[in-house]
């Protein structure tokens, strides 16, 4: 498996990105502002992530998704760790990520990768999405924000 940046002329694997974000409109907006990386085995895309600079010296992982057939095999962790290393190598001091209040699996993964919870953006998913989103039988309402200082080893 390799992880590489998706080139501008390559087709965006929108179905994979929609697994982590139900709004194609929002996905296309943040992909245009950031960089998209894919994990692939030969020509098969296993997973994807998008990073977007948000403030001076800060970058955010906006979307992380793994093909359903390959979930639970460590690819999500490899993608997140690759994003952290990519951000560190690019000179960013802080990397951030957010997930829905019901994202128990994601919260565990991000903390295993060194992120710490920093805040809750209340009603984020109510403000930014027209249709209600449910995950693990819970309505996704708030975004849990996490960050990591990239200067620490």
List the main descriptive attributes of the protein structure presented here.
single chain, 153 residues, alpha+beta, two-stranded antiparallel sheet, 28% helix
In short:
With 153 residues, the chain is an alpha+beta fold. The chain is built from five helices and nine strands, in the order βααβββαβαβαβββ.
What is the fold's blueprint, element by element?
Elements: E1 2-5, H1 14-17, H2 24-33, E2 35-41, E3 44-55, E4 58-66, H3 75-89, E5 94-100, H4 104-112, E6 116-121, H5 124-128, E7 134-135, E8 138-139, E9 143-149
Parallel strand pairs: 4-5
Antiparallel strand pairs: 1-2, 2-3, 3-4, 5-9, 6-9, 7-8
- The number of domains: 1
What strand line-up does the widest sheet have? 1-2-3-4-5-9-6
Q: Termini separation (Å)?
A: 25 Å
Task: Estimate percent helicity.
Answer: 25-40%
**The CATH H-level homologous superfamily:** Gcn5-related N-acetyltransferase (GNAT)
Please tell me the overall pLDDT.
Answer: 94
Percent of residues in beta strands?
35-45%
Largest sheet: 7 strands, mixed
Computed over alpha carbons, the radius of gyration is 15 Å
Structural class: alpha+beta
The total of beta strands comes to 9
CATH class: Alpha Beta
CATH topology: Aminopeptidase
Please tell me the CATH architecture by its name: 3-Layer(aba) Sandwich
Number of helical regions = 5
> What is the N-to-C order of secondary-structure elements (H for helix, E for strand)?
EHHEEEHEHEHEEE
């Amino acid at each position: 498996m390799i992880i590489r940046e998706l080139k501008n002329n390559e087709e965006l694997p929108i179905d994979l990105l929609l697994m982590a974000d139900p709004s194609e409109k929002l996905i296309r907006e943040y992909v245009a502002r950031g960089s998209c990386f894919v994990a692939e085995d030969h020509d098969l895309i296993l997973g994807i992530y998008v990073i977007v600079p948000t403030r001076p010296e800060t970058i955010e992982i906006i979307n992380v998704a793994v093909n359903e057939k390959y979930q639970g095999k460590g690819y999500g962790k490899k993608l997140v760790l690759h994003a952290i290393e990519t951000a560190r190598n690019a000179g960013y001091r802080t990397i951030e990520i957010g997930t829905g209040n019901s994202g128990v699996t994601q919260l565990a993964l991000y903390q295993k990768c060194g992120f710490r919870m920093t805040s809750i953006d209340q009603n984020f998913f109510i403000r930014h999405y027209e249709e209600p989103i449910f995950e693990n039988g819970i309505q996704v309402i708030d975004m849990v924000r996490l960050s990591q200082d990239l200067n620490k080893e």
